[in-house]
Every structure is written in structure tokens, then in C-alpha cells.
Amino acid sequence: MNKLAFILLLAAAPNLWAAERFVLDPEHTFPSFEIRHQNVSWMRGKFNRSRGQVVLDAQSPADSFIEVVVDAGSGDTGHDELNRKLLGSNFFNTARFPEIRFVARDVSFQDGIPVSARGELTMLGVTQPVLLEIREFGCGRHFPSFRNFCGADVHTTIRRSDFGMNYGIPLIGDEVKLAIEVEGFRE
């Protein structure tokens, strides 16, 4: 790599050797889920509205912080009748619990890059510990705004029964795979 390319790379990427604060971009943050349906297929869905913030400090991981808030009522499977069922009282019960929230203060780094976040997921009024795996973390300069931003592919698996969502088990799986494609702009 020549010197000019290296200098441009450093200028484009946020300095992750000091605390950096990011605000999630709701247009490029995509929380989604997968669950087994009657042990023959996978049902997939997403949430269309979320917000959050991330503070990353590889030098002092204890100062790192992640908060993601999902509008539970924005759940979408692409099928209107199924959406009504999922948002109703047997599943997400969005009339009573409008938000799903993840908060982490324990972020692990490898070579200055975040690789996992241990925190708490609150859903249906129940809070449980969750470990998120952070994959494919990368940063750059956003075009056309020229703002610094970072993104990642985040994954975990939960048991919905741990949050009191027991309806339909075992025909509808208990284990739920969660994924969040996330981008955030540096403040």
C-alpha cells in the first residue's frame, strides 16, 4: 500500500483508539428474526423502526456502551394476517410493550475492533442477559455526506420462553435467531 492510500484510509476511518460515539442510522439498521414453524420451515421477519447509540473505546472497554431500541409495533413478516398475530397479545403484545431494548456496557475488542457485546435484552417487560456476536465490523466515509460511519453484522440466539412468550411452543419454535445489520454515524 502506498503512503497516499494509507493516509486516505486513516482519514476515512474513525479513530477507534479513543472513545467514539455513533448514532444509529435508522435507514440502514435492520433488526430481523428467524424462527422454526412446525419444524418444517423458517419464518422470517423484521422490524422497520429502530434507534440507538453506540460508544466504542478499545483502549478503555469499560467506557463502551451500546443501546438499541426497536419499535415492536413495526414488526413485519410481509404477510398482514401474520403481522396482526405477531403484534398481538400472544406474541409481542405491542399494545402493552411497545419497545424492545438492548443495552450493553461490556464490549469485547480484538485488535481494536469490537467482536462481542454482553448486555441485557428487555422484551415483554422481562430482562435477560444476552451476548451479541459482532461480525464484519467496518468503518469508512459515507458518500455523499462525507461523514464518518461504521457498520456491522450482529447476531445472537434467544429463547422466547425466557421472556414469557410461550404461545405455540413446540409447533412454533422456542429458539429465535436475531440479526441486526447496523450502521451508525460518528457524532
Strand segment count:
11
Q: How helix-rich are the residues, as a percent range?
A: under 10%
Mean pLDDT value: 91
- End-to-end gap: 29 Å
What's the CATH class label? Mainly Beta
**By CATH's scheme, which homologous superfamily applies?**
Lipid/polyisoprenoid-binding, YceI-like
CATH topology description: Lipocalin
Coarse shape? globular
Strand content: over 45%
Architecture per CATH nomenclature, i.e. the level-2 architecture:
Beta Barrel
Structural class: mainly beta
Give, in spatial order, the strands making up the sheet with the most strands: 1-4-5-7-8-9-10-11
Order of helices and strands: HEEEEEEHEEEEE
Structure, explained:
With 187 residues, the protein is mainly β. The protein has one domain (3-186): Lipocalin (Beta Barrel). It is 10% helix and 55% strand. It is built from two helices and eleven strands, in the order αββββββαβββββ. It has helices spanning 3-12, 80-87, and strands at residues 20-24, 30-37, 41-47, 50-56, 65-71, 75-76, 99-110, 113-123, 126-141, 148-159, 172-186. The protein has an eight-stranded antiparallel β-barrel. Strand 4 and strand 5 (65-71) form a beta hairpin. The longest helix is centred in the N-terminal third of the chain and has 10 residues, at 3-12. Mean pLDDT is 91; it is low at 2-16.
